[in-house]
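Quick review question:
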């Protein structure tokens, strides 16, 4: 993936004085490119890619099922559902109770089952059974927010989109690349600052990085593959146990 040496003039404000590298040199986009390249080569492919195989409808359904649900629960639930219905036409032929049984135990499975039926029917009624490729159109579907819409556009349609979840929001701020208060604000700032070739990779690598290393509490900075570039804004790394000295005699 290319590294684009774009200059970034935005400053990081309101950071703690002892939170990392000097704030006089906030992370620029060239360095951010190095971070994303490193993370991309560090972690295995996120299972969402294998599950959906560039199918916008599968991306849409899997994203809705993933909300407030761990991947280890969402992935097999999606697989069970797609084995029975993998198109809007097939999905609306199922009852809510059938979908509930197939996707259980994902969080809010009853609400999600009804949402899947509702937006599948809307796709048939308003979009000819096709999943739209614009954020605005996707946001008209019940249960679809900006995170899901961006992932459908990017992962499903292969178009430029930045999917921002809590991992992307948290890590970009910790790195010192941006200084934002909400995921929505992070998306807008990244659209302005992040070079387009990195839009499709940032969510995938940062979700994996956030799950395995840059955790919300006690991040594993001691083994982080991008620690050399990170400004560690408002970060309290995990405590690392020191090996006991060998006893003499």
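Suggested answer, residue by residue:
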């Amino acid at each position: 993936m290319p590294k684009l040496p774009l200059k970034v003039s935005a400053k990081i404000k309101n950071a703690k004085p002892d939170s990392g590298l000097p704030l006089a040199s906030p992370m620029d986009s060239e360095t951010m490119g190095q971070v994303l390249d490193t993370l991309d080569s560090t972690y295995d492919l996120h299972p969402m890619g294998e599950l959906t195989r560039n199918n916008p409808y599968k991306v849409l359904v899997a994203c809705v099922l993933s909300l407030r649900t761990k991947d280890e629960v969402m992935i097999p639930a999606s697989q069970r559902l797609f084995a029975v219905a993998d198109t809007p036409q097939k999905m609306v032929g199922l009852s809510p109770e059938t979908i509930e049984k197939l996707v259980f135990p994902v969080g809010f499975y009853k609400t999600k089952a009804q949402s899947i039926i509702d937006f599948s029917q809307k796709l048939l009624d308003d979009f000819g059974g096709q999943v739209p490729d614009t954020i605005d159109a996707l946001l008209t579907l019940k249960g679809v927010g900006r995170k899901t819409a961006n992932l459908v556009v990017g992962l499903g349609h292969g178009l430029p989109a930045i999917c921002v979840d809590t991992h992307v929001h948290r890590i970009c701020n910790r790195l010192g690349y941006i200084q934002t208060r909400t995921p929505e604000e992070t998306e807008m700032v990244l659209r302005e600052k992040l070079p387009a070739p990195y839009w499709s990779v940032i969510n995938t690598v940062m979700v994996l990085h956030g799950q395995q290393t840059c955790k919300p509490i006690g991040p594993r900075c001691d083994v982080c593959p991008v620690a050399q570039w990170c400004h560690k804004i408002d970060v309290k790394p995990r405590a690392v146990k020191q090996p006991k000295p060998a006893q003499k005699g």
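Why it works: Residues 239 and 245 are 18 Å apart (CA to CA). The radius of gyration is 20 Å.
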